[in-house]
Amino acid sequence: MNQASVSHAARILMERRQSGTQGDALPEPHRPHDLDAAFAIQCGVSKWMDQAIVAWKCGMPAADKWIVAPIYANDVHEANTQPCAVWARHGQVRIEPELAFILAHDLPARAAPYRPEEVDAAVAKTRLALELIDSRYAHAEQLNFYDHFADGLFNQGLLLGPVVNSNIACQTSQLAIKLTIAGHESIALEGQHPAGMPRLPLYWLAEFLRSKGIGLQAGQAVITGSYAGSPSVPVGTDIQVQFGELDFIRTHFEGK
Questions:
Q1: First to last CA, the chain
Q2: How confident is the model at residue 82 (pLDDT cuts 50, 70, 90)?
């Protein structure tokens, strides 16, 4: 794809992201058909957004998949701020219970690879988090990975909860998740981190961004995968998500 086509595609996705609208697949001349084109569009969205990237989502890659997407300043919320405004679909929003690793200092682009112990040393603290899920496509289930990768892999934002013990959290491969919606019985979910150990995707992200000349910055939060899929919860209702013995997030979503 040429730069004009990338920019056109990114502008469409940026406008949908800011307005909360959904639409068809990108026009065929501007639709990505490989990882490089999709990543270029994703980066183009960041340029059009004109907002700081304050968080990243990531996961372990596959031969034909890179799991990485930026999260923007206006889309990151604190759990103690009520309510949390989201783009809701049919009165519901999807959430993913995750851990967020907050960086104490930069991991800039450089020639030498990053060792895991260097990445560990950059983590200032660990917080509970809920990734907020949405798509800029009206029929997301009909599209392929490249379409979703260009669009930020279903991310619409991030809700940050309390700080937890980093030493325990970074070794937590299994975590019992209990979801409580006001007026309903709690739902118990057997949480399993998709990467096994929750910092493995962070190590990959530091290396991937380094290779692209981007880098990570102090203060950014990095989420690395959901312990319990993407359950839907209603807006306009108190929600609590318990993360095993670590702590809980209590919040209240409202539609934008």
A1: 34
A2: confident
Cα Rg for the chain, rounded, in angstroms?
Answer: 18
- Listed as own residue / partner, the contacts of 22-27 with beta carbons closer than 8 Å and 24 or more positions apart are 22/135, 22/136, 22/137, 22/138, 23/136, 23/137, 23/138, 24/137, 24/138, 24/139, 25/137, 25/142, 25/143, 25/147, 26/147, 26/150
Q: State how far Cα 29 lies from the chain centre.
A: 28
**Residue-wise pLDDT tens digits, 205-228:** 999 999 999 999 999 999 999 999
Tokens of 158: 């991030």
Residue 21 main-chain phi, psi, to 5 deg? -90, 160
Q: Residues for the chain: how many in total?
A: 256
**Which residues 6+ apart lie within 8 Å of 28 measured at CB?**
none
187-192 vs 123-133, strand pairing mode = unpaired
User: Beta partners for 192?
Assistant: 174
| Among 88, 57, 55, residue whose Cα is nearest residue 72 | 55
**Predicted local distance difference test score (pLDDT) of residue 248:** 97
State what percent of residues in the chain have pLDDT above 70: 100
Backbone angles phi, psi at 46, to 5 degrees: -60, -40
CA-CA distances (angstroms) from residue 224 to 58, 99, 139, 202, 205?
5, 7, 26, 7, 9
Other beta carbons less than 10 A from residue 256's beta carbon: 10
Confidence of residue 50 (pLDDT cuts 50, 70, 90): confident
Pairing between β-strand 92-103 and β-strand 221-223 as defined by DSSP bridges: antiparallel
